[in-house]
Design brief:
Helices cover 20% and strands 25% of the residues. The protein is an alpha+beta fold and 199 residues long. Belongs to the kiwellin family. It is found in: Secreted.
Length: 199
């Protein structure tokens, strides 16, 4: 009798664990995050502050921080492979653009006509990918782009980050030139699933 009760409890616990795991995967995918079997967990939360008037540049449909909203932060990114999945977003690297200040790798602004990118914090890897090239594959095409900046996954909602939220952990933030090279129609620029690799 005790054995039957134990078996029933064990089966119930297994069912709950499987159900919870499926629910968590679905929730991650619904929020645009790609679950990575136990890798790159959130490192914390950041409380949003309302930007001062006229201080958040919404070029390229950039989001501005909301007062009191909590944003997830990451100190890591998914593992890099020859086929690393990512979300391609759009960013201006020019003075006055939505990218904020000069890029981290050379402290300069760069033309949006050049194929350049910022990588999420973990992929930027403490500047180890600075000035190196990656190959981005999407929309049936590929493009070679230079890494110039970090898309900060650990901080945001301040003047250094143009009062925008922290970057997700799986982003390649690209200039207009990258989107053009991938043959994406301009009215579809914004977010797209891609994969990338070190060149």
């Amino acid at each position: 009798m005790k054995m039957k009760a134990f078996s029933s409890v064990f089966l119930f616990i297994c069912f709950v664990l499987v159900f919870t795991d499926c629910f968590m995967v679905e929730a991650c995918e619904t929020n645009g995050m790609k679950p990575q079997a136990g890798t790159c967990q959130p490192s914390g939360k950041l409380k949003g502050k309302k930007p001062p008037p006229g201080k958040c540049n919404t070029e390229n449909d950039s989001d501005c921080c909301e007062e009191g909203k909590f944003y997830t932060t990451y100190k890591c990114s998914p593992p890099v492979s020859s086929h690393t999945k990512a979300i391609l977003t759009i960013n201006s690297f020019e003075a006055g653009g939505d990218g904020g200040g000069p890029v981290e790798c050379d402290n300069k602004y760069h033309s949006d006509d050049d194929p350049v990118v910022a990588l999420s914090t973990g992929w930027f890897n403490n500047r180890k990918r600075c000035m190196k090239y990656i190959k981005i594959h999407g929309n049936g095409k590929s493009v070679r782009a230079k890494v110039l900046d970090e898309c900060d996954s650990t901080a945001g909602c301040d003047s250094d980050h143009d009062y925008q939220p922290p970057c997700p952990h799986n982003v390649v933030d690209a200039s207009k030139a990258v989107w053009k090279a991938l043959g994406v129609p301009e009215n579809d620029w914004g977010e797209m699933d891609v994969y990338w690799s070190d060149d």
